[in-house]
Each structure stands twice: as structure tokens, then as C-alpha cells.
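Section 3.1: Structural characterization of target chains.
Under the original work plan, the team committed to producing a structural model for every single-chain target entering the pipeline before any wet-lab resources were allocated. The record below documents one such target. The sequence was received from the expression subgroup and is listed exactly as submitted; it comprises 309 residues.
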Amino acid sequence: MKFFQSFVLFIFICISLIAETQVSISSSANLVTIGDKINVKVITKTSVQAQRVNFVSKKKDFEIISEKLLPLKVQGDYTVFEKNITISFFKTGDFNIGPFVVELIKNGKIIEKKQTNSIPIRVKSVLTKEDKYIKPLKNLIDIKGNPFYVLKYIIVFLVIVSLVILIIFFIKRKNRSINQRKEAVLSPIDEFEFRVNELIGQKLFEKGKIRRFFTDLSIIIKNFLSREYKFPAEDFTTYETLLHLKTKEKEAFIVDNLEFLFNVSDLVKFAKFAPNLHTFKTLCNKTRDIIISFKKRVIIEETEKNVTH
């Protein structure tokens, strides 16, 4: 009996000493349009004494835009390898990201292979419903008479069109230079306020162009965060942006309001959420509160500087 108990204990110890490896992948979105950038993370957590890992895609319906292998981390008896991959799909339909095969390598040899899960994703066309009903051009109409008679009118028309195009070009160029001067002079919060007011003034929400409104709003917010907190928010997902923001902004009120803006924007862009007028007004109020809070902070900082001087 004692021998049997000792044998069972020996087997249990051997099982507990067997090395364990876990692999997983995650995606920044599962509903995108053609050409959208998708951030994919492949994480390997292992107790095997591996020196490095290779990530191999078994089936690839997408294009890899960029790859970045992060420094390995040690968590107790485990080593964590993480790789960030940016991909894009250039055809519509339902696809899978993955599975990836992870090869653990030591001294140049593969000592273990593991396969990750796969993530379903849907890729939609950028065409709208109106685009699908474009009718073909009609046949050309025969014009009788001397073509040189209308030639002078055609030349006059082309000259007028050319002049209009030149005028529009110079006006846009002038406005662009004015905007560039404004952006160069304005502080991050003043630029943020100017661009938000300009966006709301376009009345995209009232015109039913809700997705475009929230797409432009996300760009404006990330540009503000990049200038104010000095990190590349434009290159980050919403999760990564908020993670960096929480390390740099100590006022929970501002973080919570920005998180609300990002969450509503992502729901509209990726989950077909249609916010009502109350939600839109709440979003505008929270944006205004953020601007007021930052401006109060600027006033306090300037007052403190004047006192010290």
C-alpha cells in the first residue's frame, strides 16, 4: 500500500513538472471596411526555456502592413513573448485571422509548436447603397450641322471653367495657409475647441451622416491627445490610447469623459450603433466640460507662474 501511494505521488510530481505553453491572439476590431488597419496581438506564455519564438500564419487572406516583436517579459516561472501585427483586408467577406503557429526555439532548434485560436472578422465594402444604383451612361446623341459653329462656344466654356477652377484653387490654398497658421499658433486645447466647434457646425449628425461625424471626432481627439500628452495616439487602438492616457492624466473626470467619447465613437463605427439626440447632446456637453476643465487648469498654471516670478 505504501509503495502504491509513493508511486502515485511520484506520478503527480512528474505531471506538475511538465512544461506548459499557452498561446492566444486578439484583434482590435472584428467589423472593418476594405483597407482599414487592424492591430493583432499574438501572445505566448511558456515555462519552456525558449530563447525566441517564430510566428507563422497557416492561412492568410490579409496583407501584413507591419510587424513588431516586443521585449520578452518574465512572470515568475513563465516567459511571455508578444508580437504586434498590423494587417489589412483588400477583399470583402467573412474571414478568420489565424490560426497562427508559434514555434519555440532554443539553440537554433524548434523545441515545441503551439497553434493559436482564430478570430472571425467581417470585411465590408466602402460603397454605400446609393452607389449600387448608378445607371449606365446613355448612348451618344447625333448632332447635325457644322461642328465648327459650336466650337467657339466650347472654347469660351472651357476658358470660363478653367478660370473658375483657378479661382477655387487659390481660395482653397489661401484657406489652407490660414488654417496652418492658426494650427501653428493655437495651443492644443484651443485647437481642439476650434476643430470640435467646426465639426459640430457642419451639422453632420442632423444630416444623418453619423458615422462620418464620429470618425472625424475620433481623429480630432487623438490629435489633441498627441499634442497635449506627447504620445502617438493616432497609431494606437482605443484601448491602448486610454491606457496611456490614464498614466499621464491624473484627473479622473477628464479621463472618464474622454473614455465616454471613445466608447460611443467605436460603437457607431464598428457596431452600427445609432445614438439618439439625447446621447449626442450628452457627448457635446462632455466635450465642452473637458475644454472648460483644461482652460481652468491653464489659468491656474499661469497664475502660479506669475506668483513665483
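The helical segments are 2-17, 147-185, 188-201, 210-229, 238-248, 252-271, 277-308.
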